[in-house]
Amino acid sequence: MNDTANRPDKYPFTVPEGYFRSLEDRLHGRIHAPLRGTALLVMRVKPALMLALMFGIIAGFGYIVSKVTGLLYTDPVESGDPIMAMIEEGWLESSFIYSYSDEIDVETAFNSSLENTVTIDEDISEEIESSLTEDELIEYLELK
Amino acid sequence: MTDDREILDALREEGREDYAFNLLVRKYSERLYWHIRRAVIDHDDTDDLLQNTFIKAWKYLPGFREDSRLYTWLYRIATNETINYLRSKRLRTMLPFNGQERAACLRLTEEQGFTGDEITRRLYRAIAQLPPRQKMIFTMRYFDELKFTEIAAIVNRTVGAVKASYHQAHTKLRQILDTED
């Protein structure tokens, strides 16, 4: 195929008479052809249609998501579980703190706090316990 | 022959766009016509693709950044149009990728405007069996005698890849022609 003497013809096809001369006119005809009524209407309306379509797609997607999440959620009142229903209605506290708050005795907590934070000499502890009132005890601790 | 610079300057000058476009068509229509026709064979298909090439050029010329030469850019549009057409045609006609049946369909008769001798007919039938991109690379090198660097810029591949593709096409054609003997 490198032998240029026997090289096949570069242009072995016929071209219709005057084809290249008429090409310019045909191209101008296509480039400057006025848009027909329907094409013009489509071109003008297309952006608005695309916007409406996008809005529809987003709204549809939102609707599907709300439907799916609605199916996954079960109303505790309607679930048939009496404990869950009572929690939902406010008759039962559901958190850890709430469930233990009623069991905590304030006086016990106060004494426990004192025992853990203040060192009371052994020789006077008995006297304190027997003779001092709560107010005197606080006064004593503040002076100390 | 008009200079590309003159065409581009005229295209950007208000009121002279049509004149510049005529110069462009006059200068490149024949080269691009043969570039397309060697690949698609049929004149009407070639005419459609050539017109699409120039319409696209008209549309995108205002944004042409002159990173490449004008004829490289036009060749690229024509090559892409042709490759897309050949691929879509293959899908439409459900012809297999193996080109033997495709070549059988390619009669290369006088009705198709073929005027070449028997050697040329055999070569074109063999070229028809190449994949579209390989076919375009081979014809640009073999018939249009473009440099590998120019072809690489047109098909947006590296020079090495283009050389490899040309070599593969050359080997395939030799095998096809040897088998026929």
CATH superfamily of the largest domain in chain B: RNA polymerase sigma factor, region 2, helix turn helix motif
Largest sheet of chain B: none
What is the annotated CATH architecture of the largest domain in chain B?
A: Orthogonal Bundle
Residue share in β-strands of chain B? under 5%
Give the count of structural domains of chain B.
2
Number of discrete helical segments of chain B: 9
Q: List low-pLDDT spans of chain A.
A: 1-5
Which percent range describes the beta-strand content of chain A? under 5%
How many whole angstroms does the radius of gyration of chain A measure?
Answer: 47 Å
Spatial gap, N to C terminus of chain B: 44 Å
> Order of SSEs of chain A, N→C?
HHHHHHH
Keywords:
heterodimer; A: 144 residues; mainly alpha; 7 helices; rod-shaped; disordered N terminus; B: 181 residues; Rna Polymerase Sigma Factor, Chain: A; Arc Repressor Mutant, subunit A; 2 domains; 9 helices; 72% helix; globular
Description:
The complex is a heterodimer of chains A (144) and B (181). Chain A is mainly α and 144 residues long. Chain A contains 7 helices and no strands. Chain A has helices at residues 19-31, 37-72, 82-89, 96-101, 106-117, 122-131, 134-143. Chain A starts with 18 loop residues before the first helix and ends with a helix. With 181 residues, chain B is an all-alpha fold. Chain B has 2 domains: 1-94, RNA polymerase sigma factor, region 2, helix turn helix motif (Rna Polymerase Sigma Factor, Chain: A); 99-181, Arc Repressor Mutant, subunit A (Orthogonal Bundle), CATH 1.10.10. In chain B, helix 4 (70-93) packs across helix 8, helix 6 packs across helix 9 and helix 7 (132-142) crosses helix 9 (159-180). Classes of the chains: A mainly alpha (144), B mainly alpha (181). Chain A binds chain B through residues 1, 6, 8-16, 19-20, 23-24, 26-28, 30-31, and chain B through 18, 21-22, 25-26, 29-30, 33-34, 37, 41, 43, 47, 50-51, 54-55, 58, 112-117, 119-121, 123-124, 142-143, 170, 173-174.
